[in-house]
Amino acid sequence: MNTTPDFSCDVLIIGSGAAGLSLALRLAEHSSVTVLSKGPISEGSTFYAQGGIAAVFDETDSIESHVEDTLIAGAGLCDRHAVTFVASNARSCVQWLIDQGVLFDTQVQANGEESYHLTREGGHSHRRILHAADATGKAVETTLVDKALAHPNIRILERSNAVDLIVSDKIGLPGTRRVVGAWIWNRNKERVETCSAKAVVLATGGAAKVYQYTTNPDVSSGDGIAMAWRAGCRVANLEFNQFHPTALYHPQARNFLLTEALRGEGAHLKRPDGTRFMPDFDERGELAPRDIVARAIDHEMKRLGVDCMFLDISHKPEAFVRQHFPMIYEKLLGLGIDLTKDPVPVVPAAHYTCGGVMVDDNGRTDVDGFIRHRRSQLHRAARRESYGVELVAGVPGLWLVRRGGYYPAPAARSEGRHAASMG
Protein backbone atom coordinates (compact mmCIF):
# COMPACT_ATOMS: atom_id res chain seq x y z
CA MET A 1 0.00 0.00 0.00
CA ASN A 2 1.01 3.62 -0.50
CA THR A 3 2.95 5.15 2.42
CA THR A 4 2.83 8.73 1.10
CA PRO A 5 0.10 10.46 3.14
CA ASP A 6 -3.03 11.59 1.35
CA PHE A 7 -3.80 13.66 4.46
CA SER A 8 -2.55 14.09 8.01
CA CYS A 9 -3.78 15.16 11.44
CA ASP A 10 -2.65 15.37 15.04
CA VAL A 11 -5.05 12.62 16.15
CA LEU A 12 -6.84 10.00 14.10
CA ILE A 13 -9.86 8.50 15.90
CA ILE A 14 -11.17 5.29 14.36
CA GLY A 15 -14.82 5.09 15.33
CA SER A 16 -17.61 7.67 15.47
CA GLY A 17 -19.71 6.52 18.40
CA ALA A 18 -19.94 8.42 21.65
CA ALA A 19 -16.47 7.20 22.69
CA GLY A 20 -14.79 8.62 19.62
CA LEU A 21 -16.80 11.82 19.43
CA SER A 22 -16.53 12.73 23.12
CA LEU A 23 -12.77 12.37 22.92
CA ALA A 24 -12.64 14.26 19.62
CA LEU A 25 -14.45 17.24 21.11
CA ARG A 26 -12.00 17.47 24.01
CA LEU A 27 -8.90 16.99 21.87
CA ALA A 28 -10.07 19.50 19.28
CA GLU A 29 -9.56 22.27 21.84
CA HIS A 30 -5.85 22.14 20.99
CA SER A 31 -5.38 19.60 18.16
CA SER A 32 -6.55 18.75 14.67
CA VAL A 33 -8.71 15.62 14.79
CA THR A 34 -9.96 13.28 12.09
CA VAL A 35 -12.78 10.84 12.93
CA LEU A 36 -13.51 7.80 10.77
CA SER A 37 -17.02 6.37 10.45
CA LYS A 38 -17.51 3.04 8.66
CA GLY A 39 -20.93 4.12 7.44
CA PRO A 40 -23.23 7.07 8.05
CA ILE A 41 -22.20 8.70 11.31
CA SER A 42 -25.41 7.63 13.08
CA GLU A 43 -24.98 3.94 12.22
CA GLY A 44 -22.94 2.81 15.24
CA SER A 45 -24.06 1.04 18.40
CA THR A 46 -24.38 4.21 20.50
CA PHE A 47 -27.37 5.37 18.48
CA TYR A 48 -29.31 2.23 19.43
CA ALA A 49 -28.62 2.29 23.19
CA GLN A 50 -31.90 2.64 25.05
CA GLY A 51 -31.61 2.34 28.81
CA GLY A 52 -29.42 5.08 30.23
CA ILE A 53 -26.22 6.03 32.01
CA ALA A 54 -25.22 4.83 35.47
CA ALA A 55 -23.87 7.44 37.90
CA VAL A 56 -24.41 8.25 41.57
CA PHE A 57 -26.87 11.15 41.81
CA ASP A 58 -29.25 9.95 44.54
CA GLU A 59 -28.29 11.05 48.06
CA THR A 60 -29.07 7.56 49.39
CA ASP A 61 -26.61 6.01 46.92
CA SER A 62 -22.81 5.95 47.14
CA ILE A 63 -19.69 5.38 45.07
CA GLU A 64 -18.89 2.40 47.27
CA SER A 65 -22.24 0.80 46.49
CA HIS A 66 -21.76 1.44 42.77
CA VAL A 67 -18.35 -0.22 42.93
CA GLU A 68 -19.58 -3.26 44.85
CA ASP A 69 -22.52 -3.79 42.48
CA THR A 70 -20.09 -3.79 39.56
CA LEU A 71 -17.68 -6.23 41.18
CA ILE A 72 -20.52 -8.63 41.94
CA ALA A 73 -21.86 -8.46 38.37
CA GLY A 74 -18.34 -9.06 37.04
CA ALA A 75 -18.14 -12.40 38.88
CA GLY A 76 -15.20 -11.20 40.97
CA LEU A 77 -12.92 -10.80 37.94
CA CYS A 78 -13.13 -7.01 37.54
CA ASP A 79 -10.15 -4.76 38.20
CA ARG A 80 -11.20 -2.89 41.38
CA HIS A 81 -8.98 0.08 40.59
CA ALA A 82 -10.59 0.51 37.17
CA VAL A 83 -14.11 0.08 38.57
CA THR A 84 -13.48 2.66 41.30
CA PHE A 85 -12.00 5.06 38.76
CA VAL A 86 -15.08 4.95 36.56
CA ALA A 87 -17.66 4.99 39.36
CA SER A 88 -15.91 7.96 41.00
CA ASN A 89 -15.74 10.03 37.82
CA ALA A 90 -18.99 9.02 36.13
CA ARG A 91 -21.01 11.91 37.52
CA SER A 92 -18.59 14.60 36.33
CA CYS A 93 -18.51 13.07 32.87
CA VAL A 94 -22.31 12.85 32.75
CA GLN A 95 -22.29 16.53 33.69
CA TRP A 96 -20.00 17.14 30.69
CA LEU A 97 -22.63 15.52 28.46
CA ILE A 98 -25.29 17.74 30.02
CA ASP A 99 -23.09 20.77 29.33
CA GLN A 100 -22.89 19.70 25.67
CA GLY A 101 -26.68 19.78 25.51
CA VAL A 102 -27.85 16.23 26.23
CA LEU A 103 -31.33 16.44 27.76
CA PHE A 104 -31.93 13.74 30.35
CA ASP A 105 -35.43 13.19 31.75
CA THR A 106 -36.33 15.16 34.87
CA GLN A 107 -39.05 14.97 37.49
CA VAL A 108 -40.59 17.34 40.04
CA GLN A 109 -40.13 16.13 43.60
CA ALA A 110 -42.68 16.48 46.41
CA ASN A 111 -40.93 19.65 47.63
CA GLY A 112 -41.34 21.23 44.20
CA GLU A 113 -37.68 20.92 43.22
CA GLU A 114 -36.71 19.47 39.86
CA SER A 115 -34.27 16.56 39.71
CA TYR A 116 -33.13 13.98 37.19
CA HIS A 117 -35.39 10.97 36.91
CA LEU A 118 -33.38 7.92 37.94
CA THR A 119 -34.43 4.41 37.08
CA ARG A 120 -33.05 1.09 38.26
CA GLU A 121 -31.79 -1.83 36.20
CA GLY A 122 -30.49 -5.34 36.76
CA GLY A 123 -27.47 -5.66 39.04
CA HIS A 124 -27.95 -2.20 40.55
CA SER A 125 -28.89 -1.87 44.21
CA HIS A 126 -30.07 1.73 43.81
CA ARG A 127 -31.79 3.93 41.27
CA ARG A 128 -28.85 5.48 39.44
CA ILE A 129 -29.72 5.36 35.74
CA LEU A 130 -30.12 8.73 34.02
CA HIS A 131 -31.98 8.43 30.74
CA ALA A 132 -33.58 10.29 27.86
CA ALA A 133 -36.89 8.42 27.74
CA ASP A 134 -36.00 5.05 26.18
CA ALA A 135 -33.62 6.43 23.53
CA THR A 136 -30.65 7.63 25.58
CA GLY A 137 -28.04 6.61 23.03
CA LYS A 138 -29.79 8.57 20.30
CA ALA A 139 -29.91 11.67 22.52
CA VAL A 140 -26.20 11.39 23.33
CA GLU A 141 -25.04 10.56 19.81
CA THR A 142 -27.15 13.23 18.11
CA THR A 143 -25.83 15.90 20.46
CA LEU A 144 -22.19 14.88 20.01
CA VAL A 145 -22.53 14.58 16.23
CA ASP A 146 -23.95 18.10 15.98
CA LYS A 147 -21.14 19.48 18.13
CA ALA A 148 -18.44 17.62 16.20
CA LEU A 149 -19.76 18.63 12.77
CA ALA A 150 -19.71 22.28 13.85
CA HIS A 151 -16.17 22.19 15.27
CA PRO A 152 -13.51 23.72 12.99
CA ASN A 153 -10.77 21.35 14.22
CA ILE A 154 -12.72 18.12 13.65
CA ARG A 155 -12.94 16.41 10.28
CA ILE A 156 -15.44 13.54 10.01
CA LEU A 157 -15.03 11.03 7.19
CA GLU A 158 -18.14 8.93 6.65
CA ARG A 159 -18.12 5.63 4.73
CA SER A 160 -14.41 5.31 5.53
CA ASN A 161 -13.14 1.96 6.84
CA ALA A 162 -9.78 1.65 8.56
CA VAL A 163 -8.04 -1.21 6.74
CA ASP A 164 -4.94 -1.45 8.92
CA LEU A 165 -2.66 0.54 11.19
CA ILE A 166 0.62 1.86 9.80
CA VAL A 167 3.47 0.73 12.07
CA SER A 168 6.82 2.50 11.72
CA ASP A 169 9.10 -0.54 11.46
CA LYS A 170 6.95 -2.09 8.72
CA ILE A 171 7.55 0.90 6.44
CA GLY A 172 11.23 1.35 7.30
CA LEU A 173 11.06 4.34 9.66
CA PRO A 174 13.87 4.55 12.25
CA GLY A 175 13.42 4.82 16.01
CA THR A 176 11.03 3.23 18.48
CA ARG A 177 8.31 1.04 17.01
CA ARG A 178 5.15 3.12 16.87
CA VAL A 179 1.84 3.60 15.09
CA VAL A 180 2.09 6.53 12.68
CA GLY A 181 -1.29 6.42 10.96
CA ALA A 182 -3.70 4.15 9.14
CA TRP A 183 -4.70 2.95 5.70
CA ILE A 184 -8.32 3.81 4.98
CA TRP A 185 -10.76 2.41 2.42
CA ASN A 186 -12.72 5.38 1.10
CA ARG A 187 -15.99 3.75 0.05
CA ASN A 188 -17.17 6.86 -1.78
CA LYS A 189 -14.08 7.01 -4.01
CA GLU A 190 -13.42 3.25 -3.94
CA ARG A 191 -9.75 3.70 -3.18
CA VAL A 192 -7.31 3.19 -0.29
CA GLU A 193 -6.04 6.41 1.27
CA THR A 194 -3.15 6.95 3.68
CA CYS A 195 -3.48 9.07 6.82
CA SER A 196 -0.50 10.03 8.97
CA ALA A 197 -1.12 10.99 12.60
CA LYS A 198 0.83 11.78 15.74
CA ALA A 199 -1.50 9.47 17.65
CA VAL A 200 -4.18 6.97 16.68
CA VAL A 201 -7.13 6.14 18.93
CA LEU A 202 -9.32 3.05 18.49
CA ALA A 203 -12.99 3.52 19.37
CA THR A 204 -14.30 0.89 16.99
CA GLY A 205 -16.95 -0.98 18.95
CA GLY A 206 -17.13 -4.69 19.66
CA ALA A 207 -17.54 -7.85 17.59
CA ALA A 208 -21.01 -9.10 18.55
CA LYS A 209 -22.31 -8.85 14.99
CA VAL A 210 -20.48 -12.12 14.28
CA TYR A 211 -23.31 -13.93 16.11
CA GLN A 212 -26.46 -14.97 14.27
CA TYR A 213 -28.71 -13.47 16.95
CA THR A 214 -27.39 -10.09 18.03
CA THR A 215 -28.52 -6.62 19.06
CA ASN A 216 -25.57 -5.04 17.23
CA PRO A 217 -25.56 -3.13 13.93
CA ASP A 218 -23.52 -4.41 10.98
CA VAL A 219 -20.52 -2.21 11.84
CA SER A 220 -19.75 -4.16 15.06
CA SER A 221 -17.45 -6.63 13.35
CA GLY A 222 -14.31 -6.56 15.51
CA ASP A 223 -12.08 -4.71 13.03
CA GLY A 224 -10.33 -2.71 15.74
CA ILE A 225 -9.29 -5.75 17.75
CA ALA A 226 -7.86 -7.38 14.63
CA MET A 227 -5.92 -4.26 13.59
CA ALA A 228 -4.47 -3.83 17.06
CA TRP A 229 -3.39 -7.48 17.21
CA ARG A 230 -1.71 -7.24 13.80
CA ALA A 231 0.15 -4.13 14.99
CA GLY A 232 1.63 -6.07 17.92
CA CYS A 233 -0.80 -5.35 20.76
CA ARG A 234 -1.83 -8.04 23.18
CA VAL A 235 -5.50 -8.95 23.47
CA ALA A 236 -7.28 -10.68 26.35
CA ASN A 237 -10.65 -11.81 27.74
CA LEU A 238 -12.13 -12.33 24.28
CA GLU A 239 -13.95 -15.40 25.58
CA PHE A 240 -16.28 -13.10 27.53
CA ASN A 241 -19.25 -12.04 25.41
CA GLN A 242 -22.38 -10.73 27.06
CA PHE A 243 -25.83 -11.72 25.87
CA HIS A 244 -28.67 -9.28 26.40
CA PRO A 245 -31.58 -11.19 27.97
CA THR A 246 -34.42 -9.49 26.14
CA ALA A 247 -34.09 -9.08 22.39
CA LEU A 248 -37.39 -9.01 20.53
CA TYR A 249 -38.33 -12.35 18.99
CA HIS A 250 -39.94 -11.26 15.73
CA PRO A 251 -38.97 -11.98 12.09
CA GLN A 252 -39.22 -8.31 11.13
CA ALA A 253 -37.05 -6.92 13.96
CA ARG A 254 -34.47 -9.49 14.99
CA ASN A 255 -31.92 -6.91 16.20
CA PHE A 256 -34.29 -4.89 18.38
CA LEU A 257 -33.62 -5.09 22.10
CA LEU A 258 -35.99 -4.27 24.94
CA THR A 259 -34.23 -2.09 27.47
CA GLU A 260 -33.30 -3.29 30.94
CA ALA A 261 -35.28 -0.33 32.25
CA LEU A 262 -38.53 -2.16 31.49
CA ARG A 263 -37.65 -4.68 34.18
CA GLY A 264 -36.33 -1.87 36.34
CA GLU A 265 -39.80 -0.34 36.24
CA GLY A 266 -41.54 -3.60 37.08
CA ALA A 267 -41.84 -5.75 33.94
CA HIS A 268 -41.97 -9.51 34.57
CA LEU A 269 -40.47 -12.35 32.59
CA LYS A 270 -42.99 -15.13 32.01
CA ARG A 271 -43.31 -18.57 30.50
CA PRO A 272 -45.83 -19.12 27.67
CA ASP A 273 -48.41 -20.16 30.29
CA GLY A 274 -48.11 -16.75 31.99
CA THR A 275 -46.17 -17.86 35.08
CA ARG A 276 -43.05 -16.03 36.27
CA PHE A 277 -39.79 -17.96 36.45
CA MET A 278 -36.99 -15.58 37.50
CA PRO A 279 -37.69 -15.95 41.27
CA ASP A 280 -36.89 -19.66 40.79
CA PHE A 281 -33.38 -18.75 39.63
CA ASP A 282 -32.35 -15.73 41.71
CA GLU A 283 -33.75 -13.88 44.72
CA ARG A 284 -33.35 -10.60 42.81
CA GLY A 285 -35.81 -11.87 40.22
CA GLU A 286 -35.91 -9.84 37.01
CA LEU A 287 -33.32 -7.44 38.47
CA ALA A 288 -30.55 -10.05 38.60
CA PRO A 289 -27.50 -9.30 36.41
CA ARG A 290 -27.84 -9.93 32.70
CA ASP A 291 -25.86 -13.15 32.55
CA ILE A 292 -28.11 -14.76 35.17
CA VAL A 293 -31.30 -13.59 33.47
CA ALA A 294 -30.11 -14.66 30.01
CA ARG A 295 -29.18 -18.13 31.25
CA ALA A 296 -32.53 -18.48 32.99
CA ILE A 297 -34.41 -17.60 29.80
CA ASP A 298 -32.27 -20.02 27.80
CA HIS A 299 -32.83 -22.75 30.40
CA GLU A 300 -36.61 -22.37 30.31
CA MET A 301 -36.72 -22.28 26.50
CA LYS A 302 -34.77 -25.53 26.28
CA ARG A 303 -36.65 -27.19 29.14
CA LEU A 304 -40.03 -26.42 27.64
CA GLY A 305 -39.00 -26.79 24.01
CA VAL A 306 -40.27 -23.34 23.05
CA ASP A 307 -38.88 -20.55 20.89
CA CYS A 308 -39.07 -17.67 23.38
CA MET A 309 -40.13 -16.34 26.76
CA PHE A 310 -42.29 -13.25 27.33
CA LEU A 311 -41.71 -9.81 28.88
CA ASP A 312 -44.86 -8.37 30.42
CA ILE A 313 -45.41 -4.85 31.77
CA SER A 314 -49.18 -4.79 31.09
CA HIS A 315 -49.91 -4.60 34.83
CA LYS A 316 -48.54 -1.04 34.89
CA PRO A 317 -50.78 1.92 33.97
CA GLU A 318 -50.93 2.56 30.22
CA ALA A 319 -49.97 6.23 30.62
CA PHE A 320 -46.90 5.26 32.67
CA VAL A 321 -45.69 2.78 30.05
CA ARG A 322 -46.21 5.15 27.13
CA GLN A 323 -44.51 8.03 28.95
CA HIS A 324 -41.42 6.07 29.96
CA PHE A 325 -41.02 3.90 26.85
CA PRO A 326 -42.41 5.88 23.90
CA MET A 327 -39.95 4.62 21.29
CA ILE A 328 -40.39 0.95 22.23
CA TYR A 329 -44.18 1.38 22.40
CA GLU A 330 -44.34 2.80 18.87
CA LYS A 331 -41.90 0.23 17.46
CA LEU A 332 -43.86 -2.70 18.87
CA LEU A 333 -47.20 -1.22 17.87
CA GLY A 334 -45.98 -1.15 14.28
CA LEU A 335 -45.38 -4.90 14.58
CA GLY A 336 -48.83 -5.59 15.99
CA ILE A 337 -47.78 -5.79 19.67
CA ASP A 338 -49.28 -3.42 22.25
CA LEU A 339 -46.72 -3.01 25.05
CA THR A 340 -49.44 -1.79 27.42
CA LYS A 341 -51.56 -4.94 26.92
CA ASP A 342 -49.53 -7.76 25.37
CA PRO A 343 -46.66 -9.90 26.67
CA VAL A 344 -43.70 -9.35 24.33
CA PRO A 345 -41.79 -12.39 22.94
CA VAL A 346 -38.09 -12.20 23.86
CA VAL A 347 -34.89 -14.23 23.51
CA PRO A 348 -31.26 -13.61 24.57
CA ALA A 349 -28.98 -12.15 21.88
CA ALA A 350 -25.28 -11.32 21.64
CA HIS A 351 -24.82 -7.77 22.86
CA TYR A 352 -21.37 -6.80 24.14
CA THR A 353 -17.73 -7.81 23.66
CA CYS A 354 -16.17 -7.73 27.13
CA GLY A 355 -12.58 -8.46 26.06
CA GLY A 356 -10.20 -6.59 23.81
CA VAL A 357 -6.84 -4.86 23.57
CA MET A 358 -4.49 -4.63 26.55
CA VAL A 359 -4.03 -1.04 27.79
CA ASP A 360 -2.71 0.81 30.84
CA ASP A 361 -4.61 3.26 33.04
CA ASN A 362 -4.21 6.03 30.44
CA GLY A 363 -5.43 3.91 27.54
CA ARG A 364 -1.95 3.31 26.09
CA THR A 365 -1.33 0.01 24.32
CA ASP A 366 1.87 -2.01 23.84
CA VAL A 367 2.73 0.09 20.77
CA ASP A 368 3.69 3.77 21.06
CA GLY A 369 1.41 6.30 19.40
CA PHE A 370 -1.59 4.00 19.74
CA ILE A 371 -4.39 4.47 22.29
CA ARG A 372 -7.47 2.37 23.09
CA HIS A 373 -10.58 3.42 24.91
CA ARG A 374 -10.51 1.03 27.87
CA ARG A 375 -13.46 -0.89 29.22
CA SER A 376 -13.13 -4.59 29.86
CA GLN A 377 -11.08 -4.38 33.00
CA LEU A 378 -14.37 -3.04 34.35
CA HIS A 379 -16.53 -5.90 33.17
CA ARG A 380 -14.40 -9.02 32.64
CA ALA A 381 -16.81 -11.96 32.80
CA ALA A 382 -20.01 -9.92 32.76
CA ARG A 383 -21.05 -6.34 32.15
CA ARG A 384 -23.57 -4.52 34.31
CA GLU A 385 -26.57 -2.74 32.86
CA SER A 386 -26.30 0.90 31.73
CA TYR A 387 -22.53 0.86 31.75
CA GLY A 388 -22.32 0.94 27.96
CA VAL A 389 -23.38 4.52 27.36
CA GLU A 390 -21.67 5.72 30.52
CA LEU A 391 -18.29 4.40 29.49
CA VAL A 392 -18.56 4.98 25.79
CA ALA A 393 -19.79 8.48 26.41
CA GLY A 394 -16.69 9.65 28.06
CA VAL A 395 -15.35 8.43 31.39
CA PRO A 396 -12.15 6.88 29.99
CA GLY A 397 -12.01 9.25 27.03
CA LEU A 398 -12.40 12.47 28.96
CA TRP A 399 -9.99 11.39 31.66
CA LEU A 400 -7.47 10.29 29.07
CA VAL A 401 -7.30 13.92 27.99
CA ARG A 402 -7.09 15.24 31.55
CA ARG A 403 -4.52 12.76 32.82
CA GLY A 404 -2.26 11.83 29.95
CA GLY A 405 -3.02 13.96 26.93
CA TYR A 406 -3.49 12.46 23.51
CA TYR A 407 0.19 11.86 22.81
CA PRO A 408 1.77 8.91 24.61
CA ALA A 409 3.57 9.68 27.83
CA PRO A 410 6.56 7.53 28.90
CA ALA A 411 5.78 3.88 28.29
CA ALA A 412 3.91 2.12 31.06
CA ARG A 413 5.11 -1.17 32.43
CA SER A 414 3.47 -4.05 30.62
CA GLU A 415 2.29 -5.59 33.87
CA GLY A 416 0.22 -2.47 34.45
CA ARG A 417 -1.94 -3.09 31.41
CA HIS A 418 -5.49 -4.35 31.30
CA ALA A 419 -7.74 -5.73 28.60
CA ALA A 420 -9.89 -3.11 26.93
CA SER A 421 -13.06 -3.80 25.03
CA MET A 422 -13.76 -1.88 21.89
CA GLY A 423 -16.09 0.94 22.84
From TrEMBL:
Keywords: FAD, Flavoprotein, Oxidoreductase, Pyridine nucleotide biosynthesis. It catalyses: L-aspartate + O2 = iminosuccinate + H2O2. Its EC number is 1.4.3.16. Pathway: Cofactor biosynthesis; NAD(+) biosynthesis; iminoaspartate from L-aspartate (oxidase route): step 1/1. GO terms for molecular function: L-aspartate oxidase activity. Residues 10-366 form the FAD-dependent oxidoreductase 2 FAD-binding domain. SUPFAM superfamilies: FAD/NAD(P)-binding domain, Succinate dehydrogenase/fumarate reductase flavoprotein, catalytic domain. One of its GO terms (biological process) is 'de novo' NAD+ biosynthetic process from L-aspartate. InterPro entries: FAD-dep_OxRdtase_2_FAD-bd, FAD/NAD-bd_sf, NadB, Succ_DH/fumarate_Rdtase_cat_sf. GO terms for cellular component: cytoplasm. Its cofactor is FAD. It is an enzyme of class 1 (oxidoreductase). Its main location: cytoplasm. Pfam families: FAD_binding_2. It is found in: Cytoplasm. PANTHER family: L-ASPARTATE OXIDASE, L-ASPARTATE OXIDASE, CHLOROPLASTIC. Catalyzes the oxidation of L-aspartate to iminoaspartate. NCBIfam families: nadB (TIGR00551), PRK09077.1 (NF006567). Belongs to the FAD-dependent oxidoreductase 2 family. NadB subfamily. This is L-aspartate oxidase. It comes from Klebsiella pneumoniae. The gene is nadB.
